[in-house]
Amino acid sequence: MADAAPWLGPEHEEFRRALRAVVERELAPHADEWEAAGIFPRETYGLMGKLGYLGLRYAPEYGGAGLDFWYTLILAQELVKCGSVGTAVSLLAHMEFALSVIDARGTPEQKREFLAPAIRGEKIASIGISEPGAGSDVGAVRTTARREGGDWVINGSKTFITNGTRADFVSLVARTGGPGSGAHARGCRARAPHRPLGLDMGAAAQDRDDACSIERLAMGLGLLQLGEFHRHDEQRARALQVREQRR
Ligand SMILES: Cc1cc2nc3c(=O)[nH]c(=O)nc-3n(C[C@H](O)[C@H](O)[C@H](O)COP(=O)(O)OP(=O)(O)OC[C@H]3O[C@@H](n4cnc5c(N)ncnc54)[C@H](O)[C@@H]3O)c2cc1C
């Protein structure tokens, strides 16, 4: 058994079998069509949420299953077998990259407003870290967030944002310590999706040069917190190198 590992118990393997059946039944038959279209139906989030796969390691209080991280790892392994890497990455960016930071750092109010509906698959989540000038070097992030009245005004550019063209919210990394700059305009715009080499789907968007004012900030993260978030779980399949930067 290629996926067998000593830290996985019979319950993990049972979970894998059930999940594999779902992937083969619900995702794999549509993989070619979705890859050709460059997007998959929004309803897929609802289906996966209804089946309980979008909150495996989050608290039952918010609709999660409270399971260990190995279930999430199995989910990642099995999702890619559907034949559409874009679908798998989009679901993982939603349930893992974007939501884990809210689970770890969100207030109870933020968890009720963002985490719970995303676990149900009713809201789609993105994580917004990368910028045209800041990929691996997260310390070079230039997007700013500054207080204006009761709002946070976000100003900057993000790129390669999976789910970015249709996300209901973004777990956004922005600087709160800098002076801030740019014009204040309501709303932000998602430009045409990128088509990254070897990965045609995932609706990775580029938001550029738009300042947006949001009435309630989904998540305020400092770089130190982001580093802690990524160090938190060393089993994480994708880790970023975060340079601590004190201002
Ligand atoms: C399909 C896809 C989906 C994505 N989705 C998201 C998303 O949802 N949200 C998001 O925020 N980002 C997303 N990204 C962006 C992704 O996280 C970045 O591409 C990644 O962080 C690398 O950044 P970069 O492309 O700017 O490469 P760079 O940072 O320019 O790195 C290029 C190469 O140089 C190496 N390198 C960089 N710095 C150093 C150094 N100091 N020393 C030695 N080597 C170094 C790197 O290891 C790499 O091999 C996505 C990317 C892709 C392709």
Give short descriptive properties of this protein:
single chain, 247 residues, alpha+beta, Butyryl-Coa Dehydrogenase, subunit A, domain 1, Butyryl-CoA Dehydrogenase, subunit A, domain 2, 3-stranded antiparallel β-sheet, two-stranded parallel sheet, 35% helix, globular, binds flavin-adenine dinucleotide
Could you describe the 3D structure shown?
The chain has helices at 10-27, 31-37, 43-50, 69-79, 85-105, 108-119, 223-232, and strands at residues 125-128, 144-148, 151-161, 169-172, 205-214. By secondary structure, it is α+β, with helices and mostly antiparallel strands. Strands 2-3-5 form a three-stranded antiparallel β-sheet, with no helix packed on it. A hairpin with a 2-residue loop joins strand 2 and strand 3. Helix 1 (10-27) runs parallel beside helix 4 (69-79). The radius of gyration is 18 Å and the shape is globular. Mean pLDDT is 79; it is low at 179-186 and 207-247. The structure holds flavin-adenine dinucleotide. Flavin-adenine dinucleotide (FAD) binds at residues 93, 126-130, 135-137, 160-162, 196, 199, 202, 204.
Hetero compounds: flavin-adenine dinucleotide
Mean pLDDT: 79
Total domains = 2
Shape: globular
CATH topology of the largest domain: Butyryl-Coa Dehydrogenase, subunit A, domain 1
CATH architecture of the largest domain: Orthogonal Bundle
Class by helix and strand content? alpha+beta
Rg from Cα: 18 Å
| Strand composition percent | 5-15%
* Spatial order of the strands forming the largest sheet: 2-3-5
Low-confidence regions: 179-186, 207-247
Q: Helix fraction?
A: 25-40%
Largest sheet: 3 strands, antiparallel
Number of helices: 7
Report how far apart the termini are.
50 Å
CATH uppermost class of the largest domain: Mainly Alpha
Let me know the number of strands. 5
What's the order of the H and E elements?
Answer: HHHHHHEEEEEH
CATH homolog superfamily of the largest domain: Acyl-CoA dehydrogenase/oxidase, N-terminal domain
